[in-house]
């Protein structure tokens, strides 16, 4: 903007100075011409006065006339300081104030004399060879009646005129110099007044370019510059609003992308990976820094996955497929590929949505196994009831001892069938969260003691020692019936799978004391010295109908749903349960529950 200000200043100086220079030159020429014209008028008047007052028709010999006119010319020069010459009608010089007339040429053809003959007065400016300087000549005819008897010529040196003109030029140059300085200052002020708001607008525009949309131009007048500033302010406000909307949309999109459970990958028209959300990083096992900017076939991806992308790029059609990935962990993925096109239908890339459906497929498998297990578990007692009933109908009813034995078996199997159906219904309610939870404060030592007393007779039959270790001042807020169901199941399993003379223990450990001295969580451990569980079966111990030893489980009267019910009930209390076991040493169930104040 400084260059523009300098240019504008120079232009204004040149315009003002040039105009003043032209005006000065014109004025000088007018003054020069006026001065010369004034000299001519004065010379004419002087010649007319000399002609009227002098005797210019004197008679006598030529030598007498020469002497007379020369003396008159010198006399007049002494008074006027102008050269005076008397020329006879035939052009003969009869007298001159500065030179010897006898030595002078005939002047009849001189321009001033010729002009005087024609116009009555003649003027000319020329260099005088006699006086060797530039002279202004004026001539008038001298008449005797109507007859021209000669010519009077007066000459004035132009040195005086030139001196006056030089003085005028000196004054003009000095005035122009002063005016140039004033014009420069004024031009600079004018240029600054014009460029200063433009500079401020330029700075605001640069700040807007640097995304500082809060910058504004100071208000100016309503002229074109002010209107430009107002337009920039409106543009800045509009850009600020648009950028705010864009940033808000970006934040929303970023939040959606970062929190989506589905993996999102985008490939541009150059087949490079341009977008990858955290879920996609987790599913694929690579970070965004490792994949972004690389071509999909160079990104160390599974061959079948890269082939699927290539097929979508070639066909430009949506593709959906399920695929098993083995890195970073074995997963079943549902992959959706959709080509991206703009409004002008120009293809711009591929959008890939990846869903981890491993849990879904596992759930479907578990449901399938559940149906199969339910069918199998129901089939066994029903087959037993049906078989013994057919035997009784076939004639065994007459044998009273056999009939009673068969009827007892039928009763036991129906009881088992009733328990199985009851557990299935109970598990279904728990999983669907259709059971109401009635939380209330529970004094844990008394509660656990009552739970142990329910199973004490059963433990005594196998000479199993039941023990409880809990502090006296521990309370917990929970659903009492459901909590009792949890411990009855765990204690019953411990008694069932512990050999005679073994031990089943319950221990409570407070955890996470807060600033008020209250416990935030409790750890409840139910352990036994039973047969234990193999390590390969531990991950599936809480699955429905999963049994480590199916034959022995049926003998114990279990339905295979107890631990699954326990796990769901613990989760309904916002707690966790885990199992540790070693074959031949025993099993330990650890439950952690929050203490609700």
Automatic annotation (TrEMBL):
Start and end residues of each Histidine kinase domain: 373-597
UniProt-listed GO biological process terms: osmosensory signaling via phosphorelay pathway; regulation of DNA-templated transcription
PROSITE patterns the record matches: HAMP (PS50885), HIS_KIN (PS50109), PAS (PS50112)
Enzyme class: transferase
SMART domains for the chain: HAMP, HATPase_c, HisKA, PAS
Primary subcellular site in the record, as a coarse category: membrane
Domain HAMP: 192-244
EC number, UniProt record: 2.7.13.3
Subcellular location: Cell membrane
Domain PAS as annotated: residue spans: 249-294
Cellular component, GO annotation: plasma membrane
UniProt membrane topology term: Multi-pass membrane protein
PANTHER family linked to this entry: SENSOR HISTIDINE KINASE GLRK, TWO-COMPONENT HISTIDINE KINASE
Full protein name: histidine kinase
